[in-house]
Design brief:
By secondary structure, the protein is α+β, with helices and mostly antiparallel strands. Helix content is about 45%, strand content about 10%. Its EC number is 2.7.11.1.
């Protein structure tokens, strides 16, 4: 426990800031494992993104801006691989030149870092302009700083946020992307491990000719108000405003904060929740660093490398995982407090034999909704041959002849107008048994399309995602399945 913040004595002259030696290995340590399991940037069709978001349902909106910048971000899940994504949908007039939008998106899409919520692709059809990025599960810095429920963000975690952001900006600068538009606490996101990242959306302007800052003008760099242009020094100014957020737990206008610092009323800046949790030196240095970033003249502000040097030396509890610092349980066990059904349990531990036994026992109970349609077609003698294919598939499935079962079930699905969710589920398992998880995932997702509230479809998706190594997505999908099971039990 450090000295109480009431004993802080701040000196604001830059010459009094400690000089820290930052070894190259310290800077590069975080970058050594930059090989991420991410696909190459690509263009998505509008239909793909509609399917992922239930036609851009309002239930899938995760953030939206006001009338001045009416761009909306949606949460979605891709049908092809089950990956969760964030989709930014621009206003129709934002980027009239489709080629310019595509070129800009492709340039940002070349970046790949574990300090970014990386850009996976874009969509440019008609008037639609959309960006597709990694989805971050644990919300924004704004939520954890200003609207927390259980406990405030710890001092060590606030320092880590600042460092990781500096690392992100340094990485972007090294790749020729020095400009970040409207850096603020809403642009900082927490991934499945609770590590902070910055949104790739800020690497593109809100529009081709529109303003780069959508927040209150009290938080924008002074030079931007004069020229309307973002410079690397403008980004550092916004970084300083973020340091104030981290210090105070409030969104204080920089001019007001600087007045408090100059008047030695800096204690009013410090989040009262932090009292006693940091040392005099640490508090002094962070306030000094923020004040340097917020200098009126751009050339008086530090560069990103300097920020990185100062923040590296301030880090606390370096070995503690971010989720521990944030008191958020890591999703390594059952993803829900609701007990999983035997099928859910089998899928969670990838027990394919148990899954087979359960699907065989349940039979076609979930297909009752399409039974009448099948009966009519059988009466009309329209699908007898197709139905025989299903019977042959069932026989092969029972005998664990999965190759034959796949062949017969495929004939059934392609030969009739009725899509059976049970057949899709059975073929999904057959694909898993045949070491074809991508095909298994596609069938499980198609079963969900046919029967949207069927837990089995979600459980099989989770099993396929697990096999593909997409553990966090698998846990989330398993949670969805268990929630549906719980609702059924309550009905």
């Amino acid at each position: 426990m450090g000295a109480r913040c009431s004993n802080l004595c701040f000196c604001l002259w830059p010459s009094n800031i400690k000089s820290h030696v930052l070894y190259t290995s310290d800077i590069e340590k975080w970058a050594e494992n930059e090989q991420l399991n991410l696909p190459a940037f690509r263009e998505y069709s509008l239909e793909e993104l509609k399917a992922a978001t239930s036609s851009f349902s309002i239930d899938n909106i995760v953030s939206e801006h006001g009338e001045k910048a009416p761009n909306v971000v949606f949460k979605g899940q891709l049908a092809g691989n089950g990956r969760w994504i964030a989709i930014k949908r621009f206003h129709s007039s934002a980027w009239p030149d489709s080629r310019q939008f595509l070129d800009e998106a492709k340039a940002v899409g070349q970046l790949r870092s574990k300090r970014l919520a990386n850009l996976l692709g874009c969509c440019c059809e008609g008037d639609e302009r959309l960006l597709v990025a990694e989805f971050m599960r644990h919300e924004t810095l704004s939520k954890h700083l200003f609207h927390w429920d259980n406990q405030p963000l710890k001092w060590a975690m606030r320092l880590r946020v600042a460092l990781y952001l500096a690392q992100a900006l340094d990485y972007c600068s090294s790749k020729g992307r020095e400009l970040y538009h409207d850096l603020n606490s809403y642009r900082v996101l927490f991934d499945q491990d609770c590590d902070p990242r910055i949104s790739c959306f800020g690497l593109m302007k809100n529009s081709r000719d529109g303003k780069s800052y959508s927040t209150n003008l009290a938080f924008t760099p002074p030079e931007y108000l004069k020229t309307g242009k973002v410079t690397p020094e403008s980004v550092v100014y916004s970084f300083g405003a973020l340091l104030l957020d981290l210090l105070s737990g409030k969104h204080i206008p920089p001019s007001h904060a600087l007045d408090l610092i100059r008047g030695k009323n800096f204690l009013m800046l410090i989040d009262s929740c932090l009292e006693g949790h940091f040392s005099n030196d640490d508090g002094t240095e962070l306030v000094q660093l923020a004040s340097r970033c917020l200098q009126h003249e751009p050339h008086d502000r530090p560069n990103v490398k300097s920020l990185l040097t100062s923040l590296t030396s301030l880090q606390k509890e370096k070995d503690a995982p971010s989720n521990v610092l944030m008191s958020i349980a890591h999703e390594t066990t059952s993803p829900s407090q609701v007990p999983l059904t035997p099928l859910g349990e089998a899928c969670s531990r990838l027990d394919l034999t148990a899954i087979h036994e359960i699907l065989e026992k349940v039979g076609y109970k979930e297909d009752e909704g399409i039974a009448n349609e099948l009966s009519f077609q059988m009466w009309a003698n329209q699908i007898q041959e197709t139905l025989n294919s299903r019977k042959s598939g069932d026989s092969a499935f029972r005998d664990k002849n999965f190759t034959t079962a796949i062949k017969c079930y495929t004939e059934f699905l392609e030969g009739g107008n009725v899509k059976s969710p049970t057949v899709l589920a059975r073929r999904s398992l057959c694909y898993l048994m045949s070491d074809k998880p991508q095909e298994a995932l596609a069938d499980a997702m198609q079963a969900q399309v046919q029967f949207s509230n069927w837990p089995t479809a979600f459980y099989l998706q989770a099993a396929a995602l697990n096999t593909l190594g997409m553990d966090s997505d698998a846990r989330e999908t398993l949670k969805d399945g268990s929630s549906l099971d719980f609702r059924r039990m309550r009905q």
